[in-house]
């Protein structure tokens, strides 16, 4: 390879980056490129992305390289730059969404060598096939068994030097304003991961469902943007099976999405299932004003932090689809709009799991939000943290304020009185 473009997308790091490592090893000159899509809306995720790009640029500059930034259609802009610099090869990380797959197909139709590398998941999404046939695993447990046995590629160090040709306009990066709920970028990701592996990991198995304790890693936005290699994290965290299992869930949803790219739009199973329309109920759920404290706390955490605890995601999602009977796609859209870690495979895969149209082996399991609240937030601290109207309500009533002799001021009446059944 004479000159190669490394096309970054959601792999915004220099550590353990197979496409970058291969280009730096094999090509004489390397052009790291990110094409900003002007259609990406303002908001949490865009701000986070811009911080990630600024950090990536700094890391590449520290290695004699640079990050070239362009705006527009990714294939058109990449091919324009390729013609300008005389590029013979494009290296990129393979991805699973329908958007990513369409991009890959378009590049494959261009007159240039287009090479795909792993890096977005621990195990590549097409690496494992069930012994009974089929192009992907539909059930988690057999996938987990195959996943743990699959040989892993080595974790790669960052390249020592990135020889970006001089005289190339680097392109301006818009400034993220104001600062988002978490700092973006690889240094912040590595610092958080180091801290988590030292102080958080060993308590994960017992503490990860404790809503108020907030004892999960909060690494999801960094994994979403690829500031952290999932393979490196899985290797470093191997002493906690329960944590590594969560990373396997992430891979699981990615391999389902690879096989069924319409996962964000169509029922994976039960195409006949229909949902109710109720704009007022949907709006109350979105705003955290359903009158069911555990649901409202989760929805308000999402609005305040751009993140929600996994147990709260399960409770709020089950409430929307099972108790209100509304469409899981409405939930997907709202979560996707606000989550820093919002991602097609994990968001839609989990929503369909909860709705009973996905990969749950017990799609009709009951899910009682009140029982969940009392089990995972027994003292009500999580609810009080996010629902100030209930800040002064004592434990026996904080999850059921309708049992108080006079309702707390400003807090709505229950939207769905069937939520404690089932
Ligand atoms: C309805 C619903 C929607 C969700 N949408 C998303 C989403 O858009 N993006 C996203 O990254 N996760 C999503 N999840 C999964 C999970 O809630 C988050 O990954 C987790 O809460 C992130 O917090 P953490 O990093 O502290 O997780 P930890 O518990 O510390 O787990 C470590 C990592 O494992 C992965 N992981 C954990 N649980 C899951 C899971 N159930 N499915 C897939 N990967 C998992 C994540 O990458 C996470 O960062 C969703 C779950 C539900 C129920």
TrEMBL record:
Residues 2-122 form the Photolyase/cryptochrome alpha/beta domain. Residues 175-184 have a biased composition (Pro residues). One of its GO terms (molecular function) is deoxyribodipyrimidine photo-lyase activity. Keywords: Chromophore, FAD, Flavoprotein, Lyase. Coiled coil: none annotated. Its cofactor is FAD. Its EC number is 4.1.99.3. Residues 161-174 have a biased composition (Low complexity). The keyword Zinc does not apply. Residues 155-190 are annotated as: Disordered. It is an enzyme of class 4 (lyase). Pfam families: DNA_photolyase, FAD_binding_7. It comes from the Bacteria. Belongs to the DNA photolyase family. This is Deoxyribodipyrimidine photo-lyase. It comes from Nonomuraea angiospora.
């Amino acid at each position: 390879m004479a000159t190669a473009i490394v096309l970054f997308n959601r792999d915004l790091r220099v550590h353990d980056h197979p496409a970058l490592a291969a280009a730096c090893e094999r090509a004489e000159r390397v052009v790291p490129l990110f094409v900003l899509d002007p259609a990406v809306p303002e908001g949490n995720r865009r701000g986070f992305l811009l911080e990630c790009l600024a950090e990536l640029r700094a890391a590449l500059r520290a290695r004699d390289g640079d990050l070239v930034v362009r705006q527009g259609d990714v294939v058109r802009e990449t091919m324009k730059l390729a013609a300008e610099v005389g590029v013979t090869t494009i290296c990129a990380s393979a991805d699973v969404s329908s958007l990513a797959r369409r991009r890959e197909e378009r590049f494959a139709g261009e007159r240039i060598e287009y090479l795909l590398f792993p890096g977005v998941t621990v195990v590549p999404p097409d690496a494992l096939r069930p012994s009974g046939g089929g192009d992907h695993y539909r059930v988690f447990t057999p996938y987990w068994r195959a996943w743990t046995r699959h040989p892993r590629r080595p974790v790669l160090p960052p390249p020592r030097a990135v020889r970006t040709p001089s005289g190339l306009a680097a392109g301006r990066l818009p400034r993220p304003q104001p600062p988002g709920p978490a700092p973006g970028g690889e240094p912040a990701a590595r610092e958080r991961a180091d801290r988590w592996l030292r102080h958080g990991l060993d308590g994960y198995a017992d503490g990860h469902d404790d809503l108020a304790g907030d004892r999960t890693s909060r690494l999801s936005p960094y994994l979403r943007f690829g500031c952290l290699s999932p393979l490196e994290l899985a290797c470093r965290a191997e002493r906690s099976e329960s944590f590594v299992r969560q990373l396997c869930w992430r891979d699981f949803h990615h391999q389902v999405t690879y096989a069924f790219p319409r996962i964000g739009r169509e029922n994976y199973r039960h195409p006949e299932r229909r949902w109710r329309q109720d704009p007022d109920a949907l709006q109350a759920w979105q705003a955290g004003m359903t009158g069911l404290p555990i649901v409202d706390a989760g929805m308000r955490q999402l609005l305040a932090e751009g993140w929600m605890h996994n147990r709260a995601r399960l409770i709020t999602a089950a409430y929307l689809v099972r108790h209100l009977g509304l469409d899981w796609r409405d939930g997907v859209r709202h979560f996707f709009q606000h989550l820093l870690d919002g991602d097609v495979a994990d968001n839609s895969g989990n929503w369909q799991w909860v709705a009973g149209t996905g990969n749950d082996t017990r799609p009709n399991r009951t899910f009682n939000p009140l029982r969940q609240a009392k089990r995972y937030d027994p003292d009500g601290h999580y609810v009080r943290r996010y629902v100030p109207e209930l800040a002064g309500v004592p434990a026996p009533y904080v999850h059921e304020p309708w049992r108080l002799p006079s309702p707390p001021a400003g807090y709505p009446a229950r939207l769905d009185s069937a939520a404690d059944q089932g």
